[in-house]
Description:
This protein is α+β, with helices and mostly antiparallel strands. The chain has helices at residues 9-30, 38-54, 73-83, 89-92, 99-109, 112-123, 187-190, 249-285, 297-327, 333-358, 360-363, 369-378, 386-398, 412-423, 429-433, and strands spanning 129-132, 149-153, 156-167, 174-180, 191-197, 203-208, 227-238, 242-243, 287-288, 291-292. It has 15 helices and 10 strands. 50% of the residues lie in helices and 14% in strands. Strands 1-4-5-8 form a 4-stranded mixed sheet. A 4-stranded antiparallel sheet has the order 2-3-7-6, with no helix packed on it. The longest helix has 37 residues, at 249-285. It is globular, with a radius of gyration of 25 Å. The two termini are 47 Å apart. The structure holds flavin-adenine dinucleotide. The site of flavin-adenine dinucleotide (FAD) has 20 residues, from strand 1, strand 3 and helix 13.
Amino acid sequence: xxxxxxxxxxxxxxxxxxxxxxxxxxxxxxxxxxxxxxxxxxxxxxxxxxxxxxxxxxxxxxxxxxxxxxxxxxxxxxxxxxxxxxxxxxxxxxxxxxxxxxxxxxxxxxxxxxxxxxxxxxxxxxxxxxxxxxxxxxxxxxxxxxxxxxxxxxxxxxxxxxxxxxxxxxxxxxxxxxxxxxxxxxxxxxxxxxxxxxxxxxxxxxxxxxxxxxxxxxxxxxxxxxxxxxxxxxxxxxxxxxxxxxxxxxxxxxxxxxxxxxxxxxxxxxxxxxxxxxxxxxxxxxxxxxxxxxxxxxxxxxxxxxxxxxxxxxxxxxxxxxxxxxxxxxxxxxxxxxxxxxxxxxxxxxxxxxxxxxxxxxxxxxxxxxxxxxxxxxxxxxxxxxxxxxxxxxxxxxxxxxxxxxxxxxxxxxxxxxxxxxxxxxxxxxxxxx
Length: 434
Ligand SMILES: Cc1cc2nc3c(=O)[nH]c(=O)nc-3n(C[C@H](O)[C@H](O)[C@H](O)COP(=O)(O)OP(=O)(O)OC[C@H]3O[C@@H](n4cnc5c(N)ncnc54)[C@H](O)[C@@H]3O)c2cc1C
């Protein structure tokens, strides 16, 4: 029997160190982010990143043979829960999206030359990257509709298309672009991924799209930075920039997005815990109508419900992480989809209740809650809308069932009749007839 909820002591030590590092070094820095320029940000974070590297905790999401630390998803889950408390912590630990997913993609699909050129500097934090798949003109939920084309011309691909929500696009050194390379076949076989350096002629960064998180300009230190709208105007890249083989785009996308989704869910648990801590502190501190808020049953309901939801999410997340470590990312699509959907709801509830308990203060920018709330809204859309994940869960789950003709298999009169027949030999005729 191997049902074990404990963390091995050596790893717990690392987690304890991370927790302390977050409280002492990262959370204070967080309050300055809005006012720092790029140079100041680098000056303040370089020593912190070095400290993380010295501890062997930098870019832990990759296997050792791929250039990382070799922690599986279970360990990463525990780490991300801590880092998720702060929006800036993942960047200081070298595992911020979208760079982390892109590194994973290059590690899985890139050849040696590509790894040397892009993966190694990405892992070292010397380059930034973006993933350019979603297009404004077609539903991102159905990537078979992708219109961007990459046409082979001699030794080069010529890319033309229109993307948006390329997170980090405007600050990235290179973009990983999903494009149709063979329109003659189904997109599952006809799409490919290409590395496109951002300074390639024809790559036009139109704007960072203003949004709920960054209604105006995104501060430099935010990771991801803005979500860029990009036009590819016959941008030419060497065919050596193709990741994997022509037509590998969808397989690679699945491999990239699976781990990325669960890492988000892990961080959302950390975010929710932060909101929960704030809610509890306030409930114990605020007095109204003859008692503290913490003594009112409705507030106790908030606290109990939030605690249950956080812990339930953690269980589901650890299960999905274990499933991925045991069976791999492709065999864990349902588990990943379940945690993605469940965690978004939990996160939203936790922050919403924390705002409510703080009253007007919760609505102000004097607390981090309002930003957390705005960011949390995106979680139901990014990395696949919740509805689409539910479709995956339902479709795959229904494959385990079969239709029946006639009465449902639980139909009691039918089952009763069958039971009489099954046990007839054991019953006295008088009792059966009686
Ligand atoms: C903060 C943020 C960061 C992002 N970063 C990136 C990035 O770095 N790179 C990138 O390429 N993209 C990125 N995206 C885009 C994201 O992947 C897409 O927004 C997402 O896939 C949904 O696509 P869409 O916006 O075109 O919505 P649509 O596909 O138009 O869907 C709209 C709505 O339709 C409904 N819907 C769709 N399909 C179904 C269905 N089968 N059943 C029921 N309802 C359905 C859902 O409610 C969905 O929300 C980001 C998005 C956000 C918000």
